[in-house]
Amino acid sequence: MKQTLFDKIWERHVVEPVAKGLDVLYIDRQLIHEVTSPQAFEAMRRRGVNVFRPQQVTATPDHNTPTLNQHLPIGEEASRKALEALRQNCSDNGIAIFDLNTEYNGVVHIVGPELGLTQPGMTIVCGDSHTATHGAFGCVAFGIGTSEVEMALATQCLLQSKPKQMRITVEGKLQRGVSAKDAILYLIAQLTTSGGTGCFVEYAGEAFRSMSMEERMTVCNMSIEMGARGGLIAPDETAFRYVKGRMYAPQGAEWDEKLSRWKSLFTDSDASFDKEYAFDAKDIKPYVTYGTNPGMGMGIDEAIPPDEPNVKALEYMGFKAGEKLLGKPVSYVFIGSCTNGRIEDFRAAAQIIKGRKKAANVFAYLVPGSKSVERQAREEGLAEIFEEAGFTFRQPGCSACLAMNDDKVPAGEYCASTSNRNFEGRQGAGARTLLVSPLTAAAAAVTGRITDPRELM
Fold first, then answer.
1. Residue 171 lies in domain
2. DSSP tag of 265
3. How many helices (H) and strands (E) does the chain have?
4. What pLDDT shows up at residue 20?
5. Which of 118, 287, 438, 442 could disulfide-link 112, Cβ–Cβ 3.0 to 4.6 Å?
6. pLDDT at 93
7. Order of strands across the sheet with 14-17?
8. Do 277 and 321 have their domain in common?
9. Would strands 157-161 and 164-171 be described as parallel, antiparallel, or unpaired?
10. Measured CA angle at 361 (ends 358, 367), to 5 deg
């Protein structure tokens, strides 16, 4: 029987099929952070249950961490207590933690791939919807709720129903100035935020094969924004080269054995999907959102649809149907997050920023996704480019992606953001978020307005 990539991974991890289409699914790697794990550990303590396989659980604080002066005690009480609880829970249960102020701290979905914890063919879960990021390596990776965090900690398994499957094929290569972030915003705009509901999405075609691993992670990261359970891309030589030699990657004979297995991870010809869509890369431009969900997006030189039905969203954003956003002033810019906080994202931003100055009206959060990204940006001179332009290159964390730390956007202000969500209040109460690529965010940072980055390249 012809199988999809998803079928192959899922079936290899089914411990036992149970009634009503549910499977007991084995989990290779569980990632935890300070927001969704404390309740799970507390429930386990009340029941007298231990972590079953602590060596397959990895922790890093990220959501509540400050991005300046991380050597100082955290001032905000709830954030400080959240990090203290994570440390204590990891200590009590023998779980490896990449803590604040340590060499490998960072955003959970950036740290996992960087360290080689993420490997092709794995099942990976975390109490965080953007766990879909790891699907870029050919993994079945998905976010889970707090009760499932507890279940995975206690049993290294989850009770799951197998999702439906969708394949999105994009042929051709992305044009100059068009990034993976633009590609996924384009796809969400075409399919809507409910287009992938109930499905796991496989991304196929030349556009994705041509992408680096960091670009593929950006695409898979935002699969959840089209309503999908997750997204994945078949691993290839690009993926294998990325994993090889990393801290937790297999070595020697184990590498050879696993590589042989990983090379079987592809969708068989003539395997069937529940839904299929095809697009052409030449139709994708730099993208910008104009509303309060990631599907309300358009080409940067286009106008808001005159028949846009979500009037409430336009009122919140202060926009009108038929209006163009080119030239619209912004006062905040955020480059970072698990979507676009990797070294390639900062290299892209530096292309635009180098030799220019930050616009006087702009306050910018430039936040690396990990200590490794921070170090590399300094070694490559990127941080110096940003600082010479008038920016502060901050310390790692989720930062202004969400209003759970000090990096918030004030009410009524527009933020050109490389993050993944633009819901009301996502970046701060009353904040207005425009989702863009690192190139477009950098262009806004130096011009003070929404600008087509191709004009500055």
1. 164-235+267-282
2. -
3. 16, 18
4. 86
5. 118
6. 97
7. 14-17, 22-26, 157-161
8. no
9. unpaired
10. 55
* 311: phi then psi, degrees, rounded to nearest 5: -65, -35
SS3 123: strand
Among 379, 318, 385, 306, residue whose Cα is nearest residue 349: 385
> Which of 109, 130, 162 is a domain's end point?
162
Q: Which residue numbers in the chain have pLDDT < 70?
A: none
Residue-wise burial string across 112-149, b where 16 or more C-beta atoms lie within 10 A, e elsewhere: bbbbbbbbbbbbbbbbbbbbbbbbbbbbbbbbbeeebb
Domains: count for the chain: 3
Alpha helices (H) along 177-289: 180-191, 206-209, 213-221, 237-243, 252-262
Conformational region of residue 165, where left means phi above 0, alpha means psi within -120 to 50, and beta covers everything else: beta
In the DSSP assignment, the letter for residue 135 is: G
pTM for this predicted structure: 0.97
CA-CA distance, 194 to 427, in Å (whole number)? 22
Q: Is the residue at 329 inside a domain?
A: yes
- Strand intervals (E) in 134-188: 140-143, 157-161, 164-171
Domain-located, residue 94: yes
Q: Are 24 and 16 in contact (CB under 8 A)?
A: yes
Which string of b and e fits 285-311 if b means at least 16 CB within 10 Å?
bbbbbbbbbbbbbbbbeeebeeebebe
The CATH number of the domain where 57 resides is what?
3.30.499.10
Shared-domain flag, residues 292 and 406: yes
Amino acid letter for position 21:
G
Which pLDDT tens digit goes with each residue over 149-202?
999 999 999 999 999 999 999 999 999 999 999 999 999 999 999 999 999 999
Q: Looking at 120, 141, 162, which one is the last position of a domain?
A: 162
Same domain? 119 vs 222: no
pLDDT tens-digit series, residues 301-339:
999 999 999 999 999 999 999 999 999 999 999 999 999
Looking at the fold, whether 292 and 202 belong to one and the same domain comes out as no
pLDDT of residue 400: 97
Residues 444 and 318 in one domain: yes
Buried b (16+ CB within 10 A) or exposed e, 363-392: bbbbbbbbbbbbebbeeeebbebbeebbbe
What residues form DSSP beta bridges with 201? Answer: 166, 231
Residue 247, in any domain of the structure: no
Please tell me whether residues 172 and 107 are part of one structural domain.
no
Q: How far apart are CA 117 and CA 113, in angstroms?
A: 6
Residue 54 lies in a domain: yes
Sheet with 275-280, edge to edge strand ranges: 230-232, 199-204, 164-171, 275-280
